[in-house]
Amino acid sequence: MNAHGVWAGLAESVFLAGVEDRERDPRRLSLSVLGGVGLALVAAISAILLIMAVYAIVTGLGGRGFAGLDDVETAFVDSRSADAGLTILRLVIAAVVDGGFWVVFVAAVALMMRLPLLLYVTVAAQVRWRLLLVAMVLSAAALAPLVVAEWLLGPQTAAPVLAVSPLPGPRVLYALSTLLLIPAAAAEELFFRGWLLRQTSVLLRRPAVLVAVTALVFSAAHLDFTPDAFLTRALMGAGFAYMTLRLGGIEFATGVHAVNNMVIALFLQPLDYDQPAGAAFSAFSLVQDMALVGTYVLITELVARLPALRRLAGVRMEEISPSHDVSAHFG
Q1: Which sequence spans correspond to the domains of the chain?
Q2: In the predicted model, is pLDDT for residue 1 greater than 50?
């Protein structure tokens, strides 16, 4: 088994197997996408209003009616508001609303396509929760030195989990609220590496093109086109697509994605809806990004190649993409 063989085998990933005729039907696809977007928007708007209304009631602003909601909305989008409650509110809205949008969209499309939702999650008979947990442990261990390097070489600022409040209570509450980033990551993976990767494979089967297209769409969907940020997310998206194709499902990518977001929210950068303009492209950030993707590929291959780790993660050999030793064609 070599790197070239693994890459060639991604084109035959079992995750892309069995694409049905209804998934190739442009009319059915268009109607299901339009219906999915409409339902997802309704769900997202409803979730935002519900969360902000609950927050207004808890903070005593509910008695002011729409004026109270307006006050919450104004403070919510103001990055200068350092209140611990608002910081947690931003995180909750981002996790619940963003995640809910993608889940409702894919669920609606699956329903209108008359396909099981599990089809966009895994090739296994059920969700491989152990694989997700293994991914979280491996990625946390792999990210630790990168986080330390970022802290040592970057600006010396307090970690968001410490800066959110001088009191231990709000800090613990903020840390616990980052657990919502796990289902939020699962929702993004369900759409970008579950539905989009599978749907794009109807037209594009070459692994490099398939991974690149879905990675660029993933990065563009975050609406941050500063060079560093866009490249970082695109490379991460490529890594997540590789994991999905290689291991036959989104569970591993979900675990890695969730830990990445949790590490950022806890130790590197608070969630902020009024960010300053991003930094220009730098060679240092490129090295960081490449190291990150290399790490992603490494931990994926550890699971794919080590029998003990596969058993621990609950992954069967037939769920892993095949590998082709290309040297055999030149003998």
Answers
A1: 3-330
A2: no
